[in-house]
């Protein structure tokens, strides 16, 4: 689900410190010096004991937003020695479930670098809208304190983080969701639709690894199906105002990114659904599944 011609192959190395997927993890892009250490509350003590955490770096604490079950909350910070600062920040915040520390293996980051990175991370995260930030003040990027070469290096470092962080489960740097309504999908963008005999219809697009149902799409309600695995998600969408009652159903008041076409189809149709078959390419007699297979055969990166 990669968009555009900017996609470039990268090798991401994941080191499981204890040999288990639930333990401390260290991620890096091959041939780069930056390291991303990822811990949960259960492995936080192991994170603090790592020598890398005593270096200059930035860190992120994240977890569900206590006021919004559909949202992520995050705090972004920096320090000369991350260990003490992240420990203090974690004790001040009850929402966090996972922690990320970003540093380098060769101690190449200095105070100016991490202040710049912290400011840029906050700037990009705010623009993305994928998380509610717990930061009270947005720091300046202090770009005048870095040379042009240093700024370029830090932007390259940030670009690598945009690749690594989604891999380890943190989406706050992903591009913002499209604000367009279903009738305004850009020319050339693959578009999918679902039309029900009741007249309810929905339109969606792919963006990165998400299936985004666009604003203005409609969804059924109270169909009476006993099997609805996404009933709680739908109830949360109604409670949050993403879905608003309209006529005999609901209308999407804003775009919403689902983890799969089937989750999107289940919310729209109010029943368990195979989204790979239910969603059709707009203007073509082709299912989402058939479209994926055709794209794979052609080697397209649409």
Sum this structure up briefly.
It is built from 8 helices and 15 strands. The protein is elongated.
Give a structural overview.
- The protein has 302 residues and is α+β, with helices and mostly antiparallel strands.
- It folds into 2 domains: 12-167, no CATH class; 182-298, no CATH class.
- 29% of the residues lie in helices and 26% in strands.
- The chain is built from 8 helices and 15 strands.
- It has helices at residues 44-48, 82-91, 111-128, 148-167, 231-240, 261-269, 275-278, 288-298, and strands spanning 12-16, 25-29, 34-40, 57-65, 68-79, 98-104, 131-133, 192-195, 201-207, 210-213, 218-219, 243-246, 249-252, 256-258, 280-281.
- A 7-stranded mixed sheet has the order 1-2-3-6-4-5-7.
- Strand 1 and strand 2 form a beta hairpin.
- The longest helix has 20 residues, at 148-167.
- It is elongated.
Strand ordering within the main sheet: 1-2-3-6-4-5-7
Shape: elongated
What's the total count of β strands?
15
Q: End-to-end distance, in Å?
A: 8 Å
Overall pLDDT:
86
**Total of helices:** 8
Catalogue the unreliable spans: 1-5
Q: How large, in whole angstroms, is the Cα Rg?
A: 21 Å
What percentage of the residues does DSSP assign to strands (E)? 25-35%
Helical content band: 25-40%
Count of all domains: 2
Q: Output the structural class.
A: alpha+beta
- List the secondary-structure elements in sequence, H or E: EEEHEEHEHEHEEEEHEEEHHEH
**Main beta sheet:** 7 strands, mixed
């Amino acid at each position: 689900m990669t968009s555009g011609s900017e996609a470039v192959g990268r090798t991401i190395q994941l080191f499981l410190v204890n040999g288990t997927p639930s333990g401390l993890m260290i991620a890096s892009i091959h041939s780069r010096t930056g390291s991303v250490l990822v811990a949960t509350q259960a492995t936080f003590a192991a994170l603090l004991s790592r020598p890398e955490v005593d270096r200059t770096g930035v860190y992120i604490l994240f977890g569900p937003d206590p006021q919004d079950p559909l949202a992520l909350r995050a705090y972004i910070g920096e320090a000369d020695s991350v260990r003490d600062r992240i420990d203090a920040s974690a004790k001040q915040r009850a929402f966090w479930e996972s922690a990320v520390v970003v540093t380098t293996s060769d101690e190449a980051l200095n105070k100016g670098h991490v202040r710049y990175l912290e400011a840029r991370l906050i700037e990009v995260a705010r623009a993305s809208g994928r998380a509610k930030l717990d930061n009270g003040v947005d720091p300046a990027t202090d770009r005048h304190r870095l040379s042009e070469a240093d700024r370029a290096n830090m932007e390259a470092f940030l670009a690598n983080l945009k690749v690594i962080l989604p891999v380890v489960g943190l989406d706050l740097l992903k591009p913002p969701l499209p604000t367009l309504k279903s009738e305004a999908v850009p020319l050339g963008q693959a578009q999918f639709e679902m039309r029900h005999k009741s007249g309810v219809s929905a339109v969606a697009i792919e963006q990165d690894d998400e299936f985004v149902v666009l604003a203005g799409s409609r969804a059924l309600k109270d169909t009476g199906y006993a099997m609805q695995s996404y009933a709680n998600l739908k109830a949360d969408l109604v409670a949050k105002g993403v879905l608003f009652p309209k006529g005999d159903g609901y209308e999407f008041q804003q775009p919403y990114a689902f983890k799969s076409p089937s989750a999107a189809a289940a919310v729209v149709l109010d029943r368990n659904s195979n989204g790979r078959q239910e969603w059709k390419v707009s203007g073509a007699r082709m299912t989402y599944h058939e479209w994926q297979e055709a794209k794979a055969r052609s080697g397209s990166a649409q």
